[in-house]
Amino acid sequence: MEQRSIASSATPSTTSPVLLVIFWLYVGIPLVIGVWETLLKAAALFK
Predict the structure, then answer these.
(1) Residue 30: its pLDDT value, please?
(2) pLDDT in tens, 1-47
(3) What Å distances lie between residue 45 and 14, 20, 21, 34, 35, CA to CA?
(4) Contacts of the segment 30-33: beta carbons below 8 A, 24+ positions apart
(5) Cα–Cα distances in Å, from 24 out to 1, 16, 30, 42?
(6) 3-state SS record for the chain
(7) How far apart (Å, rounded) are the C-alpha atoms in residues 30 and 2?
(8) Which residues of 2-21 are buried (b: 16+ CB within 10 A; e: fewer)?
């Protein structure tokens, strides 16, 4: 019986750098906005 690992039988795929940047922005922009709003609300507690 032949044993193959999943990694050796899978073909390598390439990801478009443009697509990668778009998805990072899709995740990163709301994250930055959420962190910014949290910092503003936390700063208001110390005033």
Answers:
(1) 98
(2) 666 656 566 677 888 999 999 999 999 999 999 999 999 999 999 98
(3) 47, 38, 36, 17, 16
(4) none
(5) 43, 12, 10, 26
(6) CCCCCHHHHCCCCCCCHHHHHHHHHHHHHHHHHHHHHHHHHHHHHCC
(7) 48
(8) eeeeeeeeeeeeeeeeeeee
Amino acid at 7: A
Total residues belonging to the chain: 47
pTM above 0.70, yes or no: no
Q: What is the token pair recorded at 37?
A: 């709003």
Q: What is the predicted pLDDT for the residue at 22?
A: 97
Joined together, the tokens standing for residue 14 give 């390439």
Distance (Å, whole) CA 10 – CA 17? 21
